[in-house]
Each structure stands twice: as C-alpha cells, then as structure tokens.
Amino acid sequence: MKFISVYLFLFLCFFSYSQENKYLDVLIMIKGDSIPSESINLKEITVFPSIEFKNIEDKIKYYIIKRKTLKVYPYAILASKRLTELNKRLPLIKNRARKKKYTKIVERYIEKEFSDELKKLTRTEGQILIKLVHRETGETVYRLIKKLRNGFRAFSYSSLAKLFNISLKEAYDPINIVEDVMIEDVIKRAYADKSIKLSLKKK
Q: What is the DSSP code (8-state) at residue 90?
C-alpha cells in the first residue's frame, strides 16, 4: 500500500510536470502581431444580472427613470467639464474682478448654448440633472453656485427652483435613496453596453 501511494505521488508529479511543459511549449500567433504569445489578452467586460421587478409599477418606474437619466446625463458631464476648466483657470487669474468676469463669461456661454434645451426639461428631469451634477462634481448645485458666485445668488436660484418643486440642495445618494439606486444602475449598465451618450453635439 505504501509502495502504491509513493508510485501514485511520483506519477502525479511527473504528469503535472509534463502537462506544464506541454502547455508552455504552446505559443499563440495573433493576427497582426509578429511575436507569438503564450496567452491572449481579452478585453474586460462587465456582466450585469437581469433586472427583477416586484411588480409592473416598479418596472415602469425604472424605465421612466432610465429614459430621463440618459437624456440629462450629458448635461451633467458638461457641467463637470466646465467646472474642472474653471477651477484650473481661476487660480491663474490674480485680479478678483477679472475672476468674477471670467466666471460670468462661462455662465453666459453655457446659458446661450444650452438654455433652449434645458428649458424643455420636465421637473423630474431637472431634479435628476441636479442629482447627476452632484454625482459628477461631488458638490450640490446650491453649493457650486455659492462658491462660484455668492450666497445671495445661490439663495435666489434656490428660491426660484422651489417654485417649480425642485431642490438645488438635493444630494445624490445611491446607497439610501431608491430612485438614486435606479439611476446608478442605469448609468453603469449604459457604460457597460456602450449605449451611454456623453456628447450633446447634434448629428
């Protein structure tokens, strides 16, 4: 019995060694490359489980949020890019008056280019946009206005938004808020299947 055990052990060691060498000897030639490789690098993919809904109402709600999220998401990306550019350039402007003037120029540019489209948004689309701005910039719209302009302007905009039942102070919380959980799911799935739209340029 002891002899058999030793024999099996040696056989397995030899077999594994020979298998290892066997696979090491296999080289793969990839089309377009002149050097053979032992492995193939595959693109990483994300596989999401199918969505399960408790009832038809939840399903309808999810797809409504999906449509509205994908519609306003490019505006949130734009806001994030403009803010990044603004934060890079403002420290280079030493004069306070010139900083204020430059900020107004950026604000007017965005308003002129996209105000017509933004006016077409529904209340819920507007609120989702505000949440997405927080998602992309890390700060609420109210705080951004207060930092870039002043507290009075932030208060004025906030008061005006409240007339339309929109809160500029609302934060994005995909951990505790059900709607935000859905929004996050929509965005991640859209990135995964490359259906996300990041540009507002019209074809």
A: G
Q: 177 φ, ψ to 5°?
A: -105, 125
Rounded to 10 degrees, the C-alpha dihedral 161/135/67/157 comes to 10
Helix residue ranges, H only, the chain: 2-24, 56-89, 96-118, 123-137, 141-148, 151-163, 178-192
Buried (b) or exposed (e) across 191-200, using 16+ Cβ within 10 A? eeeeebeeee
- pLDDT tens digit at each of 203 positions of the chain: 444 444 444 444 444 444 444 444 555 555 555 555 555 565 665 666 677 888 999 999 999 999 999 999 998 888 888 888 877 887 888 888 887 787 777 777 766 666 677 778 889 998 999 999 999 989 888 888 787 777 777 777 778 777 778 888 899 999 999 999 999 999 999 988 888 877 666 54
| Residue 187: both structure tokens together | 């965005």
> What Å distances lie between residue 69 and 15, 41, 56, 126, 130, CA to CA?
57, 34, 20, 10, 11
